[in-house]
Design goal:
This protein is α/β, with parallel strands linked by helices. The chain folds into two domains: 241 residues, Rossmann fold, CATH 3.40.50.1100; 92 residues, Rossmann fold (3-Layer(aba) Sandwich). 45% of the residues lie in helices and 15% in strands. It has a seven-stranded mixed beta sheet, sandwiched between helices. Helix 1 packs across helix 7. It starts with a strand and ends in a 16-residue tail after the last helix. The C terminus is likely disordered.
Length: 349
């Protein structure tokens, strides 16, 4: 399901895009990011293009040191936090990739990281965060409850709360968009998954500066529709989350600042089901031998869903991360598992 943008009423028009970084700020962030990691590749895989019947580039954010794009934002955010000084302990909430970024970057600056995750979170993402030095606390049944508990911890433990959406985080993750648009000319449309919104807002900033003719399309889970509903109505709307595969997009409450940018700059939002995400995960592995987590494969799932309209165009899809639990990935590759055609094992072409 794709939801088209309509102009908001004058009373709902967002303020100027103060949260979007300039190209100078993005390039400054890129220099900081490159001190820790190389630019990630963008590949046009012939077999994948043949299977989809379209010209498509994958931006491989699964190739970062933490297996996901979030590390870029963490490096930039904590460099500024360290520059200001006076922070000994931080706390943040996550479903996994943001938490890894927080733990990784905090420890580089001698700051103690506390990370709150909801019950039932990815076991392997939890293990990775602990290995990176985070004190991991499980609380709540979804990200929103975990975030509210993290805010309480910030008061009781005198810790600095690190949000999942912030101008510095957007500035950091915008660096992958700048890499993509400088490497590939004349991209017609780029598909970007939406969790809380830093990735798509960073992509918008890079697009505005380097490839203004490119359409930015947001992708959400059909089982976590908060951003899709908010986009269509031009007001924030909460929505229950039931996705069992795309935990990186399991957002119940949208971020107001991200919505304002999305309303102004995003062409449309496409919803993809867990079945469609699972098929995209299989397709990525079969055609490129890359591992994609659910949210990481969602952009490709959306491009495939719109394949008829996309023929003859140059497209890009952000493979935002590859941090999927091994047992879940094995089930997906076998065509079974939670949320995939009811666990029946059937496959979609």
């Amino acid at each position: 399901m794709a939801i088209e943008s309509t102009d908001p009423p004058d009373a709902m028009l967002p303020p100027p895009d103060a949260m979007l970084p300039t190209l100078e700020e993005i390039d400054s962030a890129a220099a900081l990011v490159r001190s820790t990691m190389l630019p990630t590749p963008q590949y046009r895989w012939p077999l994948l293009c043949e299977r989809l019947g379209m010209d498509l580039w994958l931006k491989h954010e699964n190739h970062t040191p933490l297996g996901a794009f979030k590390v870029r934002g963490g490096l930039v955010y904590f460099a500024e936090l360290a520059r200001r000084g006076g922070v000994e302990r931080i706390v943040s909430a996550t479903r996994g990739n943001h938490g890894q970024s927080v733990a990784f970057a905090a420890r580089r600056h001698g700051i103690e990281p506390i990370v709150v995750v909801p019950f039932g979170n990815s076991a392997e993402k939890n293990a990775a965060m602990r290995a990176l030095g985070a004190r991991l606390i499980e609380h709540g049944h979804d990200f929103q409850e975990a975030r509210e508990f993290a805010e309480a911890i910030a008061e009781t433990e005198r810790a600095t709360m690190v949000p999942s959406f912030d101008p510095l985080l957007v500035r950091g993750v915008a660096t992958y968009g700048a890499e993509l648009f400088r490497a590939v000319d004349a991209i017609d449309t780029v598909y970007v998954p939406i969790g809380l919104g830093s990735g798509i807002c960073g992509t918008v900033a890079a697009r505005n500066a380097l490839s203004p003719a490119t359409k930015v399309v947001g992708v959400v889970s059909a089982h976590a529709r908060a951003y899709a509903l908010s986009f269509a109505s031009k007001r924030p709307i909460d929505a229950e989350v039931s996705t069992q595969l795309a935990d990186g997009m399991a957002c119940r409450t949208p971020q107001a600042e991200a919505l304002e940018i999305i309303w102004r700059h995003v062409d449309r939002i496409v919803e993809v089901s867990d079945d469609e995400v699972a098929e995209a995960m299989r397709l990525i592995f079969e055609c490129t031998h890359n591992c994609a987590e659910g949210a990481g494969a969602a952009a490709l799932a959306a491009a495939a869903k719109e394949r008829e309209a996309n023929r003859g165009r140059t497209l890009a899809a952000v493979l935002s991360g590859g941090n999927v639990d091994s047992a879940v990935f094995a089930d997906v590759l076998a065509g079974s598992g939670p949320g995939i055609d009811g666990g029946s094992g059937s496959r979609r072409a």
